[in-house]
Design a protein that fits this description.
two-stranded antiparallel sheet; 2 helices
């Protein structure tokens, strides 16, 4: 019984820390553009740009 309480407490602690960490950069990430009602942040734009334009790959467009 005591082990179960410790395990549940640990899970709650880990998940609360993860949710706080995932929302931590929200205020520091500027919005680059708005498309309709959708706001595109700098980090989201950079992630998609890097995905579509990998380094070292020649681009003959």
């Amino acid at each position: 019984m005591k082990m179960t309480k410790v395990f549940v407490s640990l899970l709650v602690f880990v998940f609360s820390g993860l949710s706080a960490f995932s929302q931590g950069n929200e205020g520091n990430d500027p919005i680059l553009m708005t498309i309709g009602d959708r706001k595109v942040t700098k980090s989201e734009f950079e992630r998609i740009y890097r995905k579509n334009n990998p380094e070292g790959q020649k681009n003959d467009k």
